[in-house]
Amino acid sequence: MLGIPYTHSGALTEAITLDKTLTKQVLIHSNIPTPRYQLFRTGKELINPDLKYPLLVKPNSEGSSKGIFNENLVMDPVKLFERIEFVISQFKQEALVEEFIDGREFTVAILGNPPKVLPIVEQNYTIFPENMPHLASYEAKWLFEDQLPNPHDSYFCPAKLDANTEKLITNTCIRIWEALDIKDVARIDLRLDRNGIPNVLEVNTMPGLIPDQNVVSYFPVAARKSGLNYEEMVNTILDSAVKRYGLKQVQKSSLIREYAVVEKNSKS
């Protein structure tokens, strides 16, 4: 609007991807699999009888697992509406209810224009306590993971995948990128259903880019595994935007220092 060049996606893409329901509607329109869902605005709506338990309750417009607690994974209507009411009252927004897919979970970092899929990260749920759901919940991300002797034990990168599954995940993520008109950088969370089909959980067009290698931040993790150090990763994001705007190359070192300061308090 003001003609100021910037990295990352445009305003419309960012607005859509900050709304989980709008994102799912775009994905469904583009024939990209995502778990079946229902949006609750008041908590008084009737549940769609076609939805199958277990169901997961999420705030519609939060990130970093905020509002997604272990007990939000529910098995019956009583608990379901209890958690819907909790989300609506505590987060002052709609509650998104979706079918829970209990399959392998991946997060996929995508970089540049044209987009390049970086090594795929898989959540390591084998280290979870027996009574802890296999879910990237608030407790898992902000409590359990931080207590591990090595937080990097919480994932595998690159994920161990057969060639067909890796290709399917990669192609799905590129289709998401195109359907949402994403630019420069994104991270996409998916789970495999019982038929091995990737279902999209979240699309994050503003992923955390923490420079500290002692902290789990999936995008830099994938970038390092691809052979890019932090500076090269940031420069790739900058170069992507510079080329889109037809600008001259910028002096990158000072920008990287500023960028690192901005990002250091954002996890995953």
Automatic annotation (TrEMBL):
Any one of the GO CC terms: cytoplasm
A Pfam family matched in the record: Dala_Dala_lig_C
Organism: Candidatus Gottesmanbacteria bacterium GW2011_GWC2_39_8
Single annotated GO MF: metal ion binding
Domain ATP-grasp: 24-239
Protein name as annotated: D-alanine-D-alanine ligase
Main location group: cytoplasm
Localization (cell): Cytoplasm
UniProt entry keywords in alphabetical sequence: ATP-binding, Cell shape, Cytoplasm, Ligase, Nucleotide-binding, Peptidoglycan synthesis
Protein family according to the UniProt entry: Belongs to the D-alanine--D-alanine ligase family.
Biological process annotations from GO: peptidoglycan biosynthetic process; regulation of cell shape
Protein's UniProt keywords contain Nucleotide-binding: yes
